[in-house]
Amino acid sequence: MARKTKTETEQTRRLLIDTARRVFAERGVSRTSLEQIATAAGLTRGAVYWHFKNKVDLFLALRNDVMMPMIATIEGILNEDSNEDPLLTIERCLLTNIELLESDPATRETFEVMITKCEYVGEFGAVLRCAIDRSIDAARNSLVAAYQRAHASGAMRPSLDPVAMANDTYAFRLGLIKQWIGCGADNGFRAIAQPMIHAHIALRRADPPAK
Question: 42 and 71, same structural domain?
C-alpha cells in the first residue's frame, strides 16, 4: 500500500507540473494563480500546497523538470572522453538543443513559458536568478573545457582564446534558443538554425595545413 501511495503522489505531482506548464503558456505566469492550476488539474488548492510551497516553487519544479535532463545531456556530450574533434563535440551540443526543441513538446513549451510568458521580477526575481546562475556556470565551464581541448589539439584557430570562445558560444546558444522560440513555427528562422550552428563552429576552425 505504501508503494502505491508513493506512486500516486508522484502522479499527482507530475499532473500539477504538466498542468502548470499548459496554464502558464495560456495565461502567462504572473496572471496565473495556484487555484487556477488546481482547478485545471481537477484537484483542490490544498493538493497543490501539499507538493509545492508557492507558485515560485512550482515554477522552479517545472523548469527543473526540463532543464536538469537537458543540462545533463549537454554536459554529457561536452565532457565525454572520446577522440572526437572537440569542435564537432561543441557543434553536436548546439544541434542537440535545437533537436530537443523540435522533438519534445514539454521542452519546447517550457522554454516558451520561460522566455515569453514570465516576468523575472518580484517574487520570481531572486530565486530564479540564483537557479539560472548555477546553470550558466555549469554550461560555461563545460564549454571552456571543450574549447581548451580544441585549442590544445590544434583544431581551433591558435589566435582564439578558449574562455572568450566559450562565452561567445554560450551567448550564441541563448540567442539561438530565444529566436527559435520567439519566431514561431511559420518564421523562416527555424529553417536556418542548423546552418547557423555549422557556420558558428566553422569560424573557429583552424585553417587546413598547406599542401
Answer: no
Place of cell 523562416: 188
Q: Assess contact for 140 and 129: CB atoms under 8 A.
A: no
Q: What is the pLDDT of residues 89-110, one digit of tens each?
A: 999 999 999 999 999 999 999 9
Rounded Cα distance between 149 and 32, Å, is 46
- 8 A C-beta contact, residue 98 and residue 194: yes
pLDDT, one tens digit per residue, over 50-86 is 999 999 899 989 988 988 888 888 888 888 767 789 9
CA distance linking residue 64 with residue 87, whole number of Å: 28
Q: Contact, 73 vs 96, CB < 8 A?
A: yes
Note whether 38 and 81 are same-domain residues: no
